[in-house]
Specification:
- The chain has about 1150 residues and is an alpha+beta fold.
- The protein has eight domains: about 5-130, no CATH class; about 145-215, Alpha-Beta Plaits; about 230-305, Alpha-Beta Plaits, CATH 3.30.70.100; about 315-390, Alpha-Beta Plaits, CATH 3.30.70; about 395-565, no CATH class; about 575-670, Calcium-transporting ATPase, cytoplasmic transduction domain A; about 775-805 and about 950-1085, 3-Layer(aba) Sandwich (Rossmann fold), CATH 3.40.50; about 810-945, Calcium-transporting ATPase, cytoplasmic domain N.
- Strands 31-43-42-41-32-39-40 form a seven-stranded mixed sheet, sandwiched between helices. Strands 23-22-24-30-25-28 form a six-stranded antiparallel sheet, with no helix packed on it. A six-stranded antiparallel sheet has the order 33-38-37-36-35-34.
- α11 packs antiparallel against α13 (about 455-470), α13 (about 455-470) packs parallel to α17 and α17 (about 540-565) packs parallel to α36.
Length: about 1150
């Protein structure tokens, strides 16, 4: 076996073993041990099934699938046999040796044995050598991670060479090579000195290699327990996608991989999100996308179930250092940090190839900040220019992809326009518009080898257009066909005939048929003995030019429009200022009159900055000045001025409407509120709506259907012409007869069919909708699916406290002490105990009780505190210094009932009166645990808490009711109080569910989904009106931790922006401005968005349904102005381009304020917001 064959076999075995291990392990988790059988043979055919994989002359299959062993030698005999095998010469022995080495290098304790089974004895007379792999018993070796700087890499082929060589190196377990950073991360086992061998391997390939960093990583035995599924998420930038067929192709290919859990492909942002099992399989996922003919770049790769790491106040920063001029410069940069005495940790050093250094530090403004670190680097060498480096975001990468696509198309558009001018003059003006007596026309009509000069000229003009302008369509078509028909393709044979192709394939087929059929006509005319002269109206050369020009112009317009639909995140990013006015330090104090303009990226936590009138804070902070007024409409959607006092938070992206102020920075890049909003918008845009899957299904079958229609059209017209059914005057070509005449209809069918409009109908509308939502202070976390559900909501359920009520500052309005004197506690002591217990609660009512208790002279501390979910709290107080020890209950009436606490008539009457006033009730009860006669529970204190209703609550309920939406209240408060609140805002008693615990709220949501009758949509665009939904669509609006289960159980979870983090994370939408009027905007916007989706979808479908018969020639028998009515391929191309452009423009029109076309927040909502300000 040659060395290249050996390396190829080793590389295949490593990839194959990992893939098979992951696939089989997922299906056999109940087994303690998983083994594989590897059989060395001479098979070169590729076969795949659920039990075995054959690739590169190696076979891997489940050990349990083999028949039971009849004979098995001892380990000593097996070792001897293996040694004898290695000593024998021959191809088979060499294979077995390198198979064993490849598996050993993968980190497994491998052994060769002689094994005989019934299954293999039927095919082989001799025993079969195999390798048993014990997944749970890898060799205990020290693992290292080496970071290498590699010079000389220029393309993906270089990456493949380096990766392949390193993967085939002994003891290497994983390799990751990055072309952008000219570096490689290699995990290997053995000794740290073995890294020198890795450098030699790279240098043997002709590249330069430098060791940057080597660190020990935990071995498998030392690693912490892993979750049952090792899930990872990869975020890709994908180049080459042009329509929804491309999306469907990538989705189907990646989904076909056994270890992939989910795939989300976004045409607008040219991105893909893939969740798969097994970190080592990233390269295979990337390879599958690239094999389909698309460019794939990994933007981010992280554990799918991992939570963001918490680094405290420590900040991680990447610094790019321009101006390094020799190999000693990276070391000098690191040496510059020694003056900071360990406060700066270098996590990745810079190199000449990758001048980016990753550090972490703890800022201590103004003495030690990122500016201090940058200054230390600058003084090291006058040529060094350090700056904060941020990797490009997915929006920036998408913008770059769009820009490259637009430039690539623009160059071809210019070529076709230059060629189209003489083509129009010769083919249209001279050959059609001028009279036959014109000297110019006579000149071009003169024959040259049986072909007119005009046709020769058109042939010369069309050829560069076909090969150098329409090549973008041909290249994609070739890649698609190659991927589908290559020997290792996993696409089932039958599917290759009914699910294939994209828009590019249709265009390529149409232009190719037009061009080559015209060339065939030239050849026939030039070689014909009758010398029939071809005039300018016979061939399709002019059609090829104009067809390509119109298609490219349409593609350019479409690319520009698609880029505009996804700019919501870029708009948010542009809200942050690029510079900041830093208040400098003067002897340790901030000097108000010492200001320096700096880049916003070098601002650190605790820095103080000046924000002038009309400017925005660079990052989030707290107000140092006495007062300020900010316009927060960019974040909340409300244009009302927000007054701020000293200590109040201010946010980046908001506008200072008052005089100059000073703020202290509290959160910087990645942590600010604007960054969180951008993250939510980005996540929402990545989630697709269910209706998009309908479009994907349609477009996946579109190309084969159009191909069949085009071929059928050609056959029908050809049959009618050849059989003599058609009149002879239909035939208006001089060469080629009916076959070439019939082609014009097939070409028109290929060209006018446009799946792009169908594929763009949904994502463009959803992207514009997400941007509009963000503009109005609504974050669409749930993406397209949430929009679709919100557009047809039947029931809206409100939480009471903090949602229908203001919830911010509830207060105790009434109280009554009931504790008997003989209990031995004064009222002040009761308040002290209550204050201590409620200090452990985050509920708004708890804060109101603490404020009521105020500052007491007593200080009691509970020994134990237990929270009773949804009811209250239980505590014990005991101290040897105090004669009386007792237990305390504080909570609602349910808690009192659970402990059978007796309430007399007076107490019951008091509580009823308070509840009828829509006040929440809190009861405090005590029980002595000392030697006392009062050893049973007794009420000690009654409290009523009033939480003011939101001013807009009643109007919201009225508006929802008018829209035929059923409104419900779901509260943990008592029924009387909930009904009193409902009576004030218009919710009927039958629609109020009270005294519900948090877990019970989710059950009630499920009950409403099943019990409520879904109402029929009155939308004129409702295509499923005859198919009633089986259950109601329920939206839940809440703000607290106790609402999280209900928000998750509801079809649409809507969180108030001022609510808890748990509620926000459980919701599909977040109302940033905390104004319920935004709920009307959300529901209205959702309906507008999906009306536009349905309109776009219908328009694209109708466009194709109407245009296809016309292109196929159904109107050809009709005469007009002395000629037949038909759609020439040139005009078909223009019509096709207008189809997708019109769909994109339709979505963009939602941004306008044109009545009936654009989206406008209702005036009713504006009135509600005004009432909320008063």
């Amino acid at each position: 076996m040659e060395d290249t064959d050996r390396r190829r076999l080793q590389r295949h075995l490593q990839k194959l073993t990992k893939a098979a291990q992951t696939s089989i392990a997922r299906n056999t988790l109940q087994q303690e041990r998983i083994r594989f059988l590897l059989k060395a043979n001479n098979e070169a055919k590729v076969r795949r099934s659920t039990k075995s994989v054959v690739l590169g002359k190696a076979r891997v299959m489940s050990y349990e699938d083999l028949a039971a062993a009849r004979a098995k030698r001892s380990e000593k005999e097996a070792g001897k046999a293996a040694k004898d095998k290695r000593g024998r010469k021959g191809k088979s022995g060499a294979q077995e040796t390198y198979v064993h080495e490849a598996l050993h290098n993968a980190g497994y304790d491998c052994r060769e044995e002689e094994h005989t089974s019934e299954k293999f004895l039927m095919q082989n007379t001799n025993s079969v050598p195999f390798v048993a792999i014990d997944q749970l018993s890898p060799q205990a070796q020290t693992h290292f991670m080496a970071t290498l700087s590699i010079g000389g890499m220029s393309c993906a082929s270089c990456i493949g060479q380096v990766s392949g060589a390193l993967e085939n190196t002994s003891r290497v377990t994983s390799v990751s090579v990055a072309l952008v950073t000219n570096s490689a991360s290699v995990e290997f086992e053995g000794e740290e000195s073995d890294v020198a061998h890795l450098v030699e391997v790279i240098e043997d390939l002709g590249y330069e290699a430098t060791i940057e960093h080597v660190e020990i990583i935990p071995s498998k035995s030392e690693a912490s327990p892993q979750p049952a599924q090792d899930l990872w998420t990869a975020y890709y930038s994908v180049e080459g996608m042009t329509c929804s067929s491309c999306v469907a192709i990538i989705t189907e290919i990646v989904n076909a991989l056994d270890y992939v859990q989910s795939v989300e492909v976004n045409l607008i942002t040219h991105s893909a999100t893939v969740i798969f099992e097994g970190k080592d399989l990233l390269a295979l996922v990337t390879e599958s996308i690239e094999d389909a003919g698309y460019g794939a770049t990994v933007d981010e790769f992280a554990p799918a179930l991992a939570k963001p790491a918490t680094h405290g106040v420590r900040r991680q920063v990447s610094i790019r250092i321009d101006g390094m001029h020799c190999h000693r410069c990276p070391g000098r940069v690191v040496d510059a940090f020694t003056q900071f005495e360990g406060r700066v940790i270098v996590e990745k050093p810079a190199t000449m190839q990758d001048p980016i250094i990753n550090i972490s530090y703890t800022p201590n403004a103004p003495d030690f900040t990122i500016r201090t670190i940058l200054g230390a680097i600058s003084v090291t060498d006058s040529q060094f220019t350090p700056r904060i480096h941020y990797p490009p975001t997915i929006e920036e990468r998408a913008s770059q992809v769009h820009a490259r696509a637009q430039r690539r198309i623009l160059y071809r558009v210019l070529l076709t326009i230059i060629v189209a001018i003489p083509t129009f003059v010769i083919g249209i003006v001279y050959m059609s518009l001028l009279s036959t007596d014109s000297p110019g026309r006579q000149y071009f009509m003169e024959p040259l080898h049986g072909i007119s000069r005009a046709e020769w000229a058109l042939f010369i003009l069309a050829t560069p257009v076909y090969f150098f302008a329409a090549d973008v369509f041909h290249r994609r078509t070739v890649k698609e066909l190659y991927f589908m028909w290559k020997p290792s393709s996993t696409v089932p044979m039958l599917r290759r005939f009914y699910r294939f192709g994209s828009m590019d394939m249709l265009i390529s087929l149409g232009t190719s048929i037009a061009y080559f059929s015209s060339v065939a006509q030239l050849v026939i005319a030039a070689t014909s003995q009758h010398r029939t002269v071809i005039n300018g109206n016979t061939t399709y050369f002019d059609s090829v030019v104009f067809l390509t020009m119109f298609l490219l112009i349409g593609r350019l317009t479409e690319a520009y429009s698609k880029a505009k639909t996804g700019d919501a995140v870029l708009t948010l990013q542009n809200l942050r200022p690029k510079e900041a006015l830093l208040l400098l330090s003067d002897n340790g104090k901030q000097a108000e009159d010492s200001i320096k303009t700096v880049n916003a990226n070098v601002i650190d936590v605790s820095d103080r900055v000046r924000v002038v009138h009309g400017a925005s804070p660079p990052w989030d902070g707290t107000l140092l000045s006495d007062s300020a007024v900010f316009d927060e409409s960019s974040l909340t959607g409300e244009s009302k001025p927000v007054k701020k006092a000293a200590g109040d938070p201010v946010y980046s992206g908001t506008i200072n409407k008052g005089g100059p102020i000073s703020i202290e920075i509290t959160r910087v890049s990645g942590e600010s509120m604007l960054d969180q909003i951008i993250k939510v918008v980005r996540e929402g845009q990545a989630r697709r709506a269910p209706i998009e899957r309908v479009a994907d299904t349609l477009t996946s079958y579109f190309v084969p259907v159009i191909t069949v229609i085009a071929i059928t059209t050609w056959i029908i017209w050809l049959s009618l012409g050849v059989s003599g059914i058609l009149p002879q005057d239909y035939l208006d070509v001089d060469v080629g007869g009916w076959p070439f005449w019939s082609l014009q209809f097939a070409i028109a069918v290929f060209i006018i069919a446009c799946p792009c409009g169908i594929g763009l109908a949904t994502p463009t509308a959803l992207f514009v909708g997400a941007g509009l939502a963000a503009k109005h202070g609504i974050l669409a976390k749930g993406g397209g699916e949430a929009f679709q559900e919100a557009s047809r909501v039947d029931v809206v359920v409100f939480d009471k406290t903090g949602t229908l009520t203001q919830g911010g500052d509830p207060e105790v309005t009434d109280h009554e002490f009931l504790l008997p004197k003989e209990f031995g506690l004064a009222n002040a002591q009761v308040l002290a105990a209550v204050k201590d217990v409620e200090g452990n609660s985050s509920h708004p009512i708890g804060r109101a009780i603490i404020n009521f208790c105020g500052s007491t002279s007593e200080a009691l501390t509970a020994q134990t505190i237990e929270e009773v979910s949804g009811k209250g709290m239980h505590a014990t107080f005991s101290s040897p210094e105090r004669p009386l020890n007792f237990e305390l209950l504080i909570g609602n009436e349910s808690l009192v009932a659970d402990h059978a606490i007796f309430l007399d008539a007076h107490t019951t009457t008091t509580l009823t009166t308070w509840k009828q006033q829509a006040k929440s009730i809190v009861i405090v009860a005590l029980k002595s645990t000392s030697a006392s006669t009062l050893d049973s529970w007794a009420p000690a204190l009654l409290l009523s808490i009033s939480d003011a209703l939101r001013p807009e609550s009643a109007s919201i309920i009225t508006s929802l009711t008018r829209q035929n939406i059923s409104v419900w209240m779901l509260s943990g408060d008592n029924l009387t109080t909930a009904r009193a609140v409902g009576a004030q805002i218009g919710i009927p008693e039958t629609n109020i569910i009270a005294s519900v615990l948090p877990h019970g709220k989710a059950e009630k949501i499920t009950y409403l989904q099943q019990s409520q009758v879904p109402h029929r949509s009155t939308s004129r665009f409702n295509f499923s009106r005859t198919k009633p939904r089986p259950r109601a669509i329920v939206a839940m609006v809440g703000d607290g931790v106790n609402d999280a289960p209900a928000l998750t159980a509801a079809d649409i979870g809507i969180a108030i922006g001022s609510g808890s983090d748990v509620a926000l994370s459980s919701a599909d939408f977040v109302l940033v401005n905390s104004n319920l009027a935004s709920l009307l905007t959300l529901l209205n916007l959702s309906r507008v968005v999906f009306r536009r989706v349905k309109f776009n979808f219908a328009w694209a479908l109708v466009y194709n349904v109407v245009a296809l018969p016309i292109a196929a020639g159904v109107l050809y028998p009709v005469r007009s102005n002395g000629g037949h009515v038909r759609l020439d391929p040139v005009w078909a191309s223009l019509a096709m381009a207008l189809s997708s452009v019109s769909v994109v423009c339709s979505s963009l029109l939602m941004r306008s304020r044109i009545p009936g076309v654009g989206f406008r927040a209702s005036t009713e909502r504006d009135k509600m917001q005004e009432s909320g300000r008063e």
